[in-house]
Amino acid sequence: MSHMREAKLVVVQSFGSQWEADLAKSALEAAGIDAMIQADSVGGNRSDVAFHTGGYKVLVRDEDAGAARDVVDPPKKRA
């Protein structure tokens, strides 16, 4: 994942809890999309801080953003 350090990263979605962000990250990685989670939880000790500072943000490379959004929030089936 070190190649993500040089890439332009975008927020795909923010979540109110660590487990939701972990689930989204796992789904993205299963789809072949590198992802990372950004949150200010004071070293994992204060999840309430992360919640009040924008939540747990799932980030991907800019060029993967469209596909990533389809994974974490799939388009609704059309009738």
What's a quick, concise take on this entry?
The chain has helices spanning about 20-30, 45-50, 65-70, and strands at about 10-15, 35-40, 55-60.
Protein topology:
Elements: E1 9-15, H1 18-30, E2 36-38, H2 47-52, E3 56-61, H3 65-72
Antiparallel strand pairs: 1-3, 2-3
Describe this structure in words.
The protein contains 3 helices and 3 strands; from the N terminus they run βαβαβα. By secondary structure, it is of the alpha+beta class. The protein has one domain (2-72): Alpha-Beta Plaits, CATH 3.30.70. The protein is globular, with a radius of gyration of 13 Å.
In helices, the fraction of residues equals 25-40%
Compute the average pLDDT. Answer: 80
Main sheet characteristics: 3 strands, antiparallel
Q: Order of strands in the sheet with the most strands?
A: 1-3-2
Shape: globular
Classify the oligomer.
single chain
Q: Output the CATH topology.
A: Alpha-Beta Plaits
Strand content: 15-25%
List key phrases describing it.
three-stranded antiparallel β-sheet; 79 residues; 3 helices; Alpha-Beta Plaits; 3 strands; alpha+beta; globular; single chain
